[in-house]
Design goal:
With 170 residues, chain A is mainly beta. Chain A has one helix and ten strands. In chain B, a hairpin with a 2-residue loop joins strand 5 and strand 6. In chain B, 62% of the residues are buried.
């Protein structure tokens, strides 16, 4: 893939990027994928070269539903990245996908980072972020051939453990 | 475990430069000064130092340059990649190098212009540099700085265990009280819980500005040798009771894929270090718990077993960690107030505390004559300190630990 620019940051995804190139190629087609072990069949949240459970180096991309639950989050009040300064405060969320939750052990899950955005891909209001909120992937067009996976709240009841912080006034 | 080196090795010299935000010189100049100060502290000449270890993140000067500057000819040296939790790990590697017969006396140093040159989080132009690999999954979302790398763990812990910002602020307040009695501290003024709460937010809900450590220009050094070699040096030796280096959670960088993400590396390190050192929690007189952020302190206290999981908020607000309390923590002021060194200053402080000659404002401090009056501008010596424990933090997934004592077990 060529280089792409988003918020002034150059994203470099060379042909030999065996971890992330396939992930962003799929995202460019509006598909969220994770790696699946070709031997034991388990999915993994981080698209690394080996299976954390059976060490197999054989893998294939597998499309997932793109739905999940916010597992943890952070709200950036102060950023050191110039192109994000106009967007503060904004939420970065760690989303646990619906697939393979609590497998193979109770604390395991497929967890992916993104911003919590609204229907126009603007940053979602801070008051709306919280652990346990249901979300769905949304692909933000960046350049021709490149879309960035983001997360949007969906109208489903909170799931599992829920918590949100108190948003300061002003 | 294989051979236990308890009490066979010592820290015999410690030294540092000024902690500042404008050193006005190179990391090479800073490093040379810190090592020279540590050699002088130990009573060692350059020809008696034959090992060097350093750690850096592409922001320092190699040992081989400073060897020329100080006339040191090592039989062994290595410059390691690493930040927090490297100090304790390298103390262990120094023991290994001596035990392997590669050298006899090892100077471990860290040198950085952490404010005036290479700031840890990356700012401005650096934050906009081209990225690839793992950063593709983080930086396009605005996730870059150290506190952000840790924040998923902090937030989830806060949610699960009901930690309040006030609890975290109590850690900063305690360390600032300690720093007010440390002439070297970059930030000497005392702050209150309200001061922390009223400082501007950095990352909600886990870090106000004053929950974050001080980016600092400095170099630091500790010198390790055998107990036998230590006998004729200047100070009473501070014995290494046990050390663990870079113990890691399942998943490493991707620990948040496994979990529980509110658990940190200390959970795995604690049983090993206490067993190795032959020490129980109640034997420890003071701690050095890595305070890159107030939250790193609270998490490590829990997972090293100073309290039950979830009770860190009670431990840090109980008074135990304050001077005059049961087990003062980061008596120099630590990273939050003395200065950010990637962990070495907390080991240096504990060596001086165990010697009984910590450099506070007491007129007779260097002779070990302390008032134990902990009011501002006074004493910071822990009375009759015999055992200390350092808990270094690399990430939620990575940590190191060092237990030292001033008497043989």
């Amino acid at each position: 893939m060529p280089n792409y620019t988003y918020r002034g940051i150059t994203l470099s995804i060379p042909e030999n990027d065996s971890e992330y190139k396939g992930y962003f190629e799929a995202a460019a087609e509006g598909r969220l994928v994770v790696k699946k072990c070709s031997d034991c069949g388990l999915l993994r949240g981080e698209p690394g070269p080996g299976c954390p459970w059976c060490t197999s180096l054989n893998w294939e991309w597998q499309q997932v539903s793109g739905k999940g639950t916010i597992y943890s989050y952070q709200v950036v009040a102060h950023t050191v990245i110039p192109a994000f300064r106009d967007s503060t405060p904004f939420a970065i969320v760690l989303v646990e996908l619906d697939e393979q939750r609590g497998q193979p052990t109770e604390f395991d899950g497929l967890r992916i980072t993104g911003n919590l955005v609204d229907t126009d891909f603007n940053m979602e209001k801070e008051a709306n972020v919280g652990i346990g909120k249901r979300v769905e992937v949304a692909f933000q067009p960046v350049e021709d051939g490149f879309m960035l996976p983001q997360w949007r709240l969906i109208d489903e009841p909170d799931q599992g453990f829920t918590w949100s912080h108190e948003v300061p006034e002003g | 475990m294989a051979g236990n080196p308890r009490d066979k090795y010592c820290i015999v010299g410690v030294g540092e430069t000024e902690y500042s935000r404008a050193s006005g010189r190179t990391t090479r100049a800073l490093g040379a000064e810190a090592i020279r100060n540590a050699m002088n502290d130990a009573g060692l000449t350059p020809d008696q130092v034959d090992g060097m270890l350093s750690y850096h993140g592409g922001d320092s000067t190699p040992s081989t340059s400073i060897q020329y500057d100080l006339g040191i000819r090592p039989n062994f040296y290595m410059d390691c990649s690493g930040g927090g939790s490297s100090t304790e790990a390298l103390v262990g590697l120094a023991i290994g190098a001596i035990e392997a017969g590669m050298c006899d006396v090892v100077a471990i140093f860290r040198s950085m212009n952490g404010y005036s040159n290479v700031r840890i989080g990356g700012t401005g132009a650096r934050a906009s540099a081209p990225i690839g690999g793992l950063d593709l999954m983080k930086r396009p979302y605005g996730l870059i700085s150290a506190v952000q790398q840790f924040a998923y763990t902090f937030t989830r812990h806060m949610a699960e265990y009901g930690v309040k910002s006030e609890d975290l602020a109590a850690i900063k307040a305690a360390h600032s009280n300690h720093a007010s009695n440390n002439p070297k501290a970059l930030m000497k003024h005392r702050v209150t819980v309200d001061d922390v709460m009223n400082s501007r937010w950095i990352i909600r809900p886990v870090a106000h500005l004053l929950d974050c450590c001080l980016e600092t220009d400095n170099a630091t050094c500790v010198i390790v040798t055998s107990a036998e070699r230590a006998r004729d040096l200047k100070h009473k030796p501070i014995y290494i009771k046990g050390v663990q280096g870079r113990g890691t959670k399942p998943g490493g960088d991707f620990h948040y894929q496994h979990g529980p993400i509110s658990r940190v590396a200390g959970h795995y390190i604690a049983p090993r270090i206490f067993d190795l050192a032959g020490v129980k929690h109640e034997d420890v007189d003071l701690t050095g718990c890595y305070d890159a952020f107030t939250y790193t302190v609270l998490l490590q206290f829990e997972d090293y077993g100073w309290c039950e999981k979830g009770e860190g908020k009670d431990y840090v607000t109980s008074g135990a960690i304050n001077l005059g309390g049961r087990r003062p923590n980061n008596v120099s002021g630590g990273h939050l107030c003395e200065g950010y060194t990637h962990g070495m200053n907390m080991v240096i402080e504990n060596v001086r505390q165990l010697r009984g000659t910590v450099d506070d404002y007491c007129p007779g401090a260097t002779e070990g004559d302390h008032t134990f009056d902990y009011s501002e501008g006074g004493c910071r010596q822990v009375p009759d300190a015999k055992i200390s424990m350092n808990m270094g933090w690399g990430t939620p997934a990575v940590g190191s630990s060092l237990i030292m004592g001033n008497v043989l077990s």
